[in-house]
Amino acid sequence: MTDEAASRSAGSTGEPQSDAGDTRSQQTQPKDAVTDAAHHVAERLKPVAAMAETVAVKAIELSSKGLDRLAVYLRERQQTRGEQAGDSPKDDRTG
């Protein structure tokens, strides 16, 4: 076998394996970098998410109190209209 043929056969069997390994490591490095970046962003957003949750809870509490008040007001208004309807015939659609 000549030196040229030996280098071709050695190069054909050795280099693809080396290239495949390099390709695999190059593919995992970007994935690792993206994963690390995602974890970093998630860690930095934890306080924001906690605050958003607190605000959402407060908004729900306030809306439920407001809805309770509205329900009481509407019941009172309905009773008032019922009493007025008994006294004099009025159209319920007018305020």
Structural write-up:
- The chain starts with a helix and ends in an 8-residue tail after the last helix.
- The radius of gyration is 37 Å and the shape is rod-shaped.
- The chain has 1 helix and no strands.
- It is about 90% helix and about 0% strand.
- The protein has about 100 residues and is mainly alpha-helical.
The description of the largest β-sheet is: none
Helix content: over 70%
The multimeric state of the shown protein is: single chain
Percent of sequence in beta strands: under 5%
Give the rounded overall mean pLDDT: 75
Taken in chain order, the helices and strands follow as H
Structural class: mainly alpha
**Unreliable stretches, pLDDT < 50, 5 or more residues?**
10-16
Summarize this, please?
This protein is mostly helical. The chain is 89% helix and 0% strand. The N and C termini lie far apart (107 Å).
Key words describing this protein structure:
mainly alpha, 95 residues, 1 helix, 0% strand
